[in-house]
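Narrative of accomplishments. A recurring question from our advisory board has been how the design workflow behaves on a single, concrete structure rather than in aggregate. To address it, we present the structure tokens for one chain from the evaluation set, followed by the sequence designed for it. No filtering or post-editing was applied between the two.
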């Protein structure tokens, strides 16, 4: 685009994801390389950039090209966008204990999920950068819910095509710790209702929009709803569908929250693992209207644990 040589890419997984080669993310701007990066994001869903040196300022500047930076503090930290790092290092410089609520909350990210489905406006993208890596483990795994949806048996697709899911972070956290679930239920008391299918507004390819945060399926009883979510998630996360990313210093991953699920993997919890993280909030141009339900249906709770 714009007279610039096309991006060089290398496939990450046979069906989705690419590594973009020889791009310095600090130099990307709205007119330089971002249009091609955004096109690759829409097409491939997961993008890897190696050998990067993003400080917080450059990280936030890159995220702003995709859209508004998500504010997990809800204004408590002021109006300026801030990082929301994923780390077991506490403010006092120590590493959190393995059985602490802080570490348990990080362990909950090892459930297959999509970020921010429990917020009134969900995420378009996450931009994650390696900062401090443990001696082993700590990988991040991805699946394409777009590819899975395209390959799903028609009978299962019919059951999900018109579904509306209720998302609640307290539901997923309760699978790890009852106390953790209660804590998040107080912070995020309201369920968020989203249609199960998110079509990409540019290429019209549909993706299943699902996460471990799904607490109920409207119109289904508890057992049927729980079974449907479990069956859909199991199909999407079959082993051959997974791209496992083993982090290296300087790695940056950007992924489409509308068309993927991901999860972290365990690591030695007495070692620091810090990933620089921001989420970008979805807007109307990202197809947000297509996942808003039109009607309210009956729900039955899907219990965690």
């Amino acid at each position: 685009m714009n007279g610039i040589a096309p991006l060089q890419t290398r496939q990450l997984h046979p069906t989705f994801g690419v590594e973009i080669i020889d791009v310095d993310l600090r130099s990307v701007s709205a007119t330089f390389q971002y249009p091609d990066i955004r096109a690759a994001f829409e097409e491939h869903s997961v993008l890897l950039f190696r050998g990067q040196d993003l400080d917080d300022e450059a990280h936030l500047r890159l995220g702003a090209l995709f859209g508004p930076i998500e504010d997990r503090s809800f204004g408590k930290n002021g109006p300026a966008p801030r990082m929301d790092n994923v780390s077991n290092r506490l403010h006092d410089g120590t590493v959190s204990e393995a059985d602490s609520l802080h570490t348990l909350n990080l362990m909950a990210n090892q459930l297959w999920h999509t970020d921010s489905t429990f917020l009134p406006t969900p995420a378009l993208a996450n931009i994650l950068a390696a900062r401090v890596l443990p001696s082993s483990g700590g990988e991040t795994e991805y699946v394409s819910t777009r590819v899975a949806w395209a390959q799903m048996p028609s009978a299962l697709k019919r059951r999900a095509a018109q579904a509306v899911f209720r998302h609640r972070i307290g539901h997923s956290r309760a699978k790890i710790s009852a106390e953790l679930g209660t804590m998040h239920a107080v912070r995020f008391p309201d369920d968020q209702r989203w249609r199960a299918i998110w079509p990409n507004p540019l290429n019209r390819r549909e993706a299943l929009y699902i996460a471990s945060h799904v607490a109920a399926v409207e119109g289904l009883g508890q057992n049927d709803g729980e079974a449907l979510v479990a069956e859909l998630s199991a199909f999407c996360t079959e082993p051959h569908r997974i791209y496992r990313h083993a982090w290296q210093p300087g790695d940056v991953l950007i992924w489409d929250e509308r068309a993927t699920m991901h999860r972290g993997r365990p690591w030695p919890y007495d070692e620091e693992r810090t990933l620089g993280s921001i989420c970008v909030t979805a807007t109307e141009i990202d197809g947000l209207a297509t996942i808003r339900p039109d009607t309210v249906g009956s729900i039955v709770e899907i219990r965690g644990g």
